[in-house]
Specification:
InterPro entries: ADH-like_C (IPR013149), ADH-like_N (IPR013154), ER (IPR020843), GroES-like_sf (IPR011032), NAD(P)-bd_dom_sf (IPR036291), Zn-ADH-like_protein (IPR051397). The chain has 325 residues and is an alpha/beta fold. It has helices at 42-49, 115-118, 122-135, 152-163, 175-183, 197-204, 219-225, 249-255, 264-270, 272-287, 304-312; strands at residues 2-6, 17-21, 31-39, 65-73, 85-89, 98-101, 106-108, 143-146, 167-172, 188-191, 210-215, 229-237, 258-261, 295-300, 319-323. The longest helix has 16 residues, at 272-287. It starts with a strand and ends with a strand.
């Protein structure tokens, strides 16, 4: 029997249920993967609550990414073999012991990662890549302001931004989160509750401001970011965990600034070539030891609600993984 977390009614993590199902027979072109770990992303929580832009038909299993071993390859499925260690890319369905997918949803696991790291890599670092490289076009020597630097995508942006040669200013809500951000390359650290970050950014940059703002928080954080940017700045809207902010057009005009929405998954669906370049680069950097997700919590599948609460309560530092035993 296969265990899976099932959403039968929209709501809080506690409304989900862990259920059992028999394995189904593969159709031509399908592959069976024994899931060893699944990564949690904030959209998983939003999707289960009915608050995400993608609204799967009920019932469904949350989870956008996982890692495991190929256990069966169906007829007409090519490019994959039994025993392959793989990352599984999904829009939902990853919180389970076993997944039936197509070869196109599989990517070889970096040899430098364990299953939990592999299951928490592509979504977060893929978003950071699309934001900083495709949309923000960060250049060496520029100042990158990363909000929510203790979170999954924020910490990925710190790591990638430093690798790209930017001077990285990281903001977060605790010393513990900032310590991890510093270990991943942040040059300057700001705690939200100790100094208004817009004042701190001006102080750090001698009044010049940030060239690129990576913002998964939104709300007042986004609005205050417009008051500490340099000429020609790019404000990258990753999400709105802190609410929806308003763009002051006068501030954008004065600074010649741009506000850019970041949807890494949708960008690839619109232009698959973007995804091929991104994936090749991310896998290469992982193999070279330049990028690695920080997995602060590894919980068993049955603790899915607790794991989701870690994201809601902002207790995670980097990523959270469900680990199948």
């Amino acid at each position: 029997m296969v265990r899976a977390v099932v959403c039968r009614e929209l709501g809080a993590p506690e409304t989900l249920r862990l259920e059992e199902f028999p394995s189904r027979v593969l159709k031509p072109g399908e592959v069976r993967v024994a899931i060893r770990a699944a990564g949690l992303n904030f959209p998983d929580v939003l999707m289960a609550a009915g608050e995400y832009q993608l609204k799967p038909e009920l019932p469904f299993t949350p989870g956008m990414e996982a890692a495991g071993d190929v256990t069966e390859v169906g007829a007409e499925a090519s490019g994959v073999a039994v025993g392959d260690k793989v990352i599984v890319k999904m829009r939902h369905g990853a919180f389970t012991d076993e997944a039936v997918v197509t070869p196109g949803q599989l990517t070889p696991m970096p040899s430098t990662f364990d299953y939990a790291e592999a299951a928490t890599y592509l979504a977060g670092h893929g978003t950071a890549y699309h934001a900083l490289i495709d949309r923000g076009r960060v250049e060496p020597g520029e100042v990158l302001l990363v909000h929510g630097a203790g979170g999954g995508v924020g910490l990925a942006a710190v790591e990638l931004g430093k690798m790209l040669g930017a001077t990285v200013i990281a903001t977060a809500s605790s010393d513990e989160k900032l310590a991890i951000a510093k270990a991943r390359g942040a040059d300057h650290l700001i705690r939200y509750d100790r100094e208004p970050f817009r004042d701190a950014v001006k102080r750090i940059t001698d009044g010049r401001g940030a060239d690129v703002v990576f913002d998964p928080v939104g709300g007042e954080v986004f609005e205050n970011s417009m008051r500490c940017i340099a000429w020609g700045a790019r404000l990258l809207v990753i999400g709105f965990t802190g609410g929806i902010g308003s763009a002051k057009t006068n501030l954008l005009l004065i600074k010649g600034a741009s506000v850019l929405g970041v949807r890494a998954g949708e960008a690839v669906r619109k232009n698959p070539a973007l995804g091929e370049v991104r994936l090749k680069a991310l896998l290469q950097w992982a193999e070279e030891g330049k990028l690695r997700p920080n997995v602060s919590h590894r919980l068993p599948l049955e603790d899915y609600a607790k794991a989701m609460r870690l994201l809601l309560d902002r207790k995670a530092i980097g990523r959270v993984a469900l680990v199948m035993e």
